[in-house]
Amino acid sequence: MDADRRLIDRAGTVELLAAALRERIIKGVYLPGERLVEESIRTSLKVSRNSLREAFRLLSHERLVVHELNRGVFVRKLSVADVTDVYRVRKLVECNAVRSLRGRPAQVEDMVAAVKAGDAAMKEQDWRALGTANMLFHLAVAAIADSQRVDELMRNTLAELRLVFHTMADPRRFHEPYLERNKEILAAIEAGDGPRAERLLLKYLEDSEQQIVGAYHSA
């Protein structure tokens, strides 16, 4: 029993550590392509080498970090193929979530809160916060599916996409136009108009994907 308890405690520590590192990656504390220095992280977070390496393995499964032989662990840099795949998942999840919508879903309140947060970020010209508000909006859209597995898939997918945000040369141009488009999508969802919400979402996602791929090619 004591051995089982220690195993459970250790697993909990690894999960918490992975969550802390994931948050740093999503917020841009660690940037795409940056090497995660094991000793520095161990010292700052006061964790064991084994726990840290297990946390790295979890984040590797989520495709947020990559281990390079004899070089260490790095925050992933997404390729154009990665971006295309991320958007393929988003189209499948988000469009499907609203397709058969009938009536006003409970998740509208979370969408309204995300739009308000986006408006506040716009006033402050805080583009990182605007990106976060946008992610919260689309997490709420996916949540209409009422599936914990879909929610987890969407969180991981958007965490990957956040890596792209940190590489955009002009984050304002990338985030600003989509706030108004979120409001259009919200209006359709509030009205229970699934087909319109799906059309708006699909066009939104296609335009966003093209913009990112175009920025990659320009870079």
CATH class of the largest domain: Mainly Alpha
Overall mean pLDDT stands at 89
Whole-number count of domains: 2
Task: Choose one word for the global shape.
Answer: globular
Structural class: mainly alpha
Task: List unreliable stretches of 5+ residues.
Answer: 1-9
What spatial order of strands do you see in the largest sheet?
1-3-2
What would CATH call the homologous superfamily of the largest domain? GntR ligand-binding domain-like
The third-level CATH topology of the largest domain is Four Helix Bundle (Hemerythrin (Met), subunit A)
Beta-strand share of residues: under 5%
Q: Distance between termini? A: 56 Å
Order of helices and strands: HEHHEEHHHHHH
Please state the second-level CATH architecture of the largest domain: Up-down Bundle
Explain the overall architecture.
It is a single chain. The chain is mostly helical and 219 residues long. It folds into 2 domains: 2-75, Winged helix-like DNA-binding domain superfamily/Winged helix DNA-binding domain (Arc Repressor Mutant, subunit A, Orthogonal Bundle), CATH 1.10.10; 80-218, Four Helix Bundle (Hemerythrin (Met), subunit A). Helix content is 75%, strand content 5%. The protein has helices at 2-27, 38-45, 49-61, 80-99, 108-124, 127-143, 148-165, 171-190, 194-218; strands at 35-36, 65-68, 72-75. Strands 1-3-2 form a 3-stranded antiparallel beta sheet. The longest helix has 26 residues, at 2-27. It is globular and about 55 Å long. The termini are far apart. Residues 1-9 have low confidence and may be disordered.
